[in-house]
Design a protein that fits this description.
Strand order of the largest sheet: 7-6-8-9-13-14
Radius of gyration: 24 Å
Helix content: 25-40%
Order of helices and strands: EHEHHHEHEHEHEHEHEHHEEEEHEHEH
Number of strands: 14
Largest sheet: 6 strands, parallel
């Protein structure tokens, strides 16, 4: 597609030089580009689409955006921008720049755009925790090295690279490849990879298996696709994101985990993958109050902590309450032999009492019906027999769907 524009987002009152440079570089690369002012000050600035034009898309009108309160104005402009971009039919890509406030402003709008549309953010927060900005979307982030305060010998190169990267994506879009198989979502961690690989091998002839890394963002991405109607069921093998939610790890889900299963009623098969571990950063970053727990250093940047019985009970109740709200077919398979490659006889996280605490809490909470069942199996999660059971249960549930 050679028609349409790249939309360049930023606050013209503070980033005019950078935005103009990006537009010029894109145009020199043969890409039509428009500057969209996302500023929250009423003074006029040079832009192809003014801040007022964007603000008028807010349900409460532009004056609600230009309210004089910085925090409220940024939140209101973020909502107006999301609604504004939703009306555009000529986008070939979106390129945004900003600091912490500007990045927070544009991120919800970019997260709401379709998967596959090129999205690139040059941001001074790109070297930190980018999860709140990326969410479950395909947003690329680039660190600018220097702060964005005019053009200099560094920023010209970095911004030029960003513009050329966007030009390349806009010039050569990747069209979707037709696939007659229904897509399903699976969750995986390194410690459950053998299980998921076996499930994919058994089901790939019938289903397009989309595997998501269970890092908090992975679970959100899978559920977003379900909400968008892009997947037809779940084999949620790896619920380890609940561990980090309960114990304060770095790969936590949020309170809406399993929300898409509830909302969509799609067939769901779940299990206990990774419920034996909380993820922290480097060993020095582990909170002091966890001193004395069992740890495994997965790599220099990731330290794993074995969940205890109290944490497993909390997760059992939490997951059970969520599954009780599901109107569709639900099967939850419990592996008696352990939740990961580390949770097996002789392994550093082998703790049958903690595992059983999860099972007892889940069994106590889950309201079992003909549609919602808890199935206990005498296998470890990575045993081929357990993987075959997951594949069989999902195939049966999906076959029962209209």
């Amino acid at each position: 597609m050679n028609s349409g524009h790249v939309y360049i987002l930023g606050t013209c009152d503070t980033k005019q030089a950078e935005l103009t440079y990006l537009r010029q570089t894109l145009r020199e690369s043969g890409i039509a580009a428009l500057i969209v002012d996302t500023g929250t000050r009423q003074a006029g600035h040079e832009a192809d689409i003014s801040a007022r034009a964007v603000a008028r898309c807010h349900p409460r009108g532009e004056e609600y955006v230009f309210c004089g309160d910085r925090g409220r104005a940024i939140a209101a402009m973020a909502e107006a921008l999301r609604l504004f971009l939703r009306t555009r039919t000529d986008m070939r890509g979106v390129l945004a720049i900003g600091g912490s406030g500007g990045t927070a402003l544009v991120s919800p709008a970019l997260q709401a755009l379709p998967i596959g549309l090129p999205k690139l953010v040059v941001s001074t927060v790109a070297s930190g925790n980018t999860a709140p900005y990326v969410g479950g979307a395909d947003i690329a982030m680039l660190y600018p090295v220097t702060d964005m305060e005019g053009l200099n010998r560094i920023s010209r190169v970095v911004l030029g690279n960003a513009a050329h990267a966007m030009a390349g994506m806009a010039h050569s879009p990747c069209p979707p490849v037709p696939d007659p198989r229904p897509a399903i979502g699976l969750t995986m961690f390194g410690v459950t990879t053998p299980c998921v690989e076996q499930v994919v091998h058994q089901l790939s002839g019938r289903f397009d298996c989309l595997v998501f890394h269970a890092t908090g963002t992975g679970g959100r991405a899978m559920e977003r696709l379900a909400d968008d109607g892009m997947i037809s069921g779940f084999i949620d093998t790896t619920l380890t994101e609940f561990c980090d939610y309960v114990a304060g790890g770095i790969f936590a889900c949020d309170a809406d985990r399993l929300g898409a299963v509830i909302r969509t009623g799609l067939p769901y098969v779940g299990s206990c993958g990774g419920l034996d571990m909380v993820n922290f950063g480097a060993r020095a970053s582990v909170p002091a109050h966890y001193r004395g727990r069992v740890f495994v250093e997965h790599n220099p940047q990731i330290t794993l902590m074995r969940t205890n019985a109290a944490e497993c009970r909390a997760m059992g109740h939490m997951i059970g309450h969520q599954l009780n709200r599901c109107a569709g077919e639900v099967r939850f398979l419990y592996p008696e032999g352990g939740f990961s490659v580390l949770d097996q006889p002789g392994g550093p996280f082998h703790d049958p009492a903690a595992d059983e605490a999860f099972y007892a809490a889940l069994a106590e909470t889950l309201e079992q019906t003909a549609q919602r069942r808890l199935i206990r199996l005498p296998h470890a999660i990575n045993d081929p027999t357990f993987a075959a059971a997951l594949a069989h249960e999902f195939s049966h549930l999906y076959g029962d769907q209209p």
